[in-house]
Specification:
Distance between the termini: 43 Å
CATH class: Mainly Beta
Largest sheet: 4 strands, antiparallel
Structural class: alpha+beta
Oligomer: single chain
CATH architecture: Sandwich
Strand order of the largest sheet: 1-10-4-7
Number of domains: 1
Shape: globular
Order of helices and strands: HHEEEEEEEEEEHH
Number of strands: 10
Number of helices: 4
Helix content: 25-40%
C-alpha cells in the first residue's frame, strides 16, 4: 500500500479522523500493513491481544465462538473499510473476546500496542483524542452487537 493510501485510511478511521496531519503521521510511523485471504482468521477468541487493526480494504466478521462443541457461532459484527477492531488492547492487554475472520480478501493496518502506547505517552493530546473516539466507537459497537445477539436469540 502506498503511504498516501495509509494516510487516507487513518484520516477516515473513527479513532484517528480528528487528529491533525502531524499526529496522524506519528501514528502512521507505528503502522504495519498486513494482508489476508477470504476465510483467514486474524485472531481467535481467547488469544492474547496486543494489536489494534484498521481495515484498509475488505470485510471482517467478528464472531463469538461457543464454549461447548456442537453449538453455533454467533456473528456479532461485520466490519468494513476504515473500521477498527481489537482496540480494547489500548486499554489493557488481555485475551481477545471474539474471533476475527476475513469475509473477503482483506488488507489491514496493524498497530502494535507497545508502539502505539509509546506515541500516546509522548503526545498525551493524541491519546486523549483517540480514547475519546474509542469510547464512542465501542459504545456503538456494543449497541450493534446487542441488537445482533437479540435478533439471533429472539
Amino acid at each position: 500500500m502506498h503511504i498516501a493510501d495509509s494516510k487516507k485510511v487513518l484520516q477516515n478511521s473513527q479513532l484517528f479522523k480528528n487528529l491533525n496531519e502531524i499526529h496522524r503521521d506519528l501514528i502512521l510511523m507505528v503502522c504495519e500493513e498486513v494482508n489476508y485471504c477470504a476465510g483467514d482468521t486474524i485472531f481467535h477468541q481467547d488469544d492474547p491481544g496486543d494489536v489494534l487493526y484498521i481495515i484498509s480494504r475488505g470485510e471482517v466478521d467478528i464472531i463469538l465462538e461457543p464454549e461447548q462443541a456442537g453449538k453455533e457461532t454467533i456473528l456479532i459484527a461485520q466490519l468494513g473499510k476504515y473500521e477498527t477492531f481489537g482496540e480494547t488492547v489500548l486499554i489493557e492487554e488481555g485475551q481477545r473476546s471474539a474471533t476475527a475472520r476475513c469475509r473477503t480478501d482483506t488488507q489491514l493496518l496493524r498497530l502494535p500496542r507497545t508502539r502505539l502506547i509509546r506515541v500516546i505517552e509522548d503526545y498525551p493530546e493524541i491519546g486523549f483524542r483517540i480514547m475519546r473516539h474509542m469510547a464512542a466507537d465501542l459504545m456503538n459497537k456494543l449497541q450493534s452487537s446487542n441488537l445482533n445477539i437479540r435478533e439471533k436469540l429472539f
